[in-house]
Write a structure and sequence with these properties.
The protein is α+β, with helices and mostly antiparallel strands. The protein has helices spanning about 5-10, 35-45; strands spanning about 15-20, 25-30. The chain is globular and about 45 Å long.
């Protein structure tokens, strides 16, 4: 990841996780916002103006179907 982009992400507590990925996207961010206005402001005022960002595609979680923390590792 570009240092300037990492710096941008670390400035915003709403960015909870960030991954460099293969496929159509270069990065996947897990962002938690209090509402759609805050999320939209983050995208339009911080992400899109950044020189390394040319496009943003977002997906909103409507409902959690299953959450399993940790890894399913069996004890010895």
């Amino acid at each position: 990841m570009d240092g300037d982009f990492v710096s941008l992400l670390t400035k915003h507590a709403m960015v909870r996780e960030a991954y460099s990925v293969s496929g159509d996207a270069d990065y996947v961010l897990h962002v938690i916002a209090k509402d759609l206005t805050e999320f939209s402001d983050f995208i339009h005022h911080h992400l899109l103006p950044h020189p390394n960002v040319t496009q943003v595609r977002s997906e909103i979680i409507l409902r959690s179907m299953k959450e399993e923390p940790g890894l399913p590792v069996k004890g010895g």
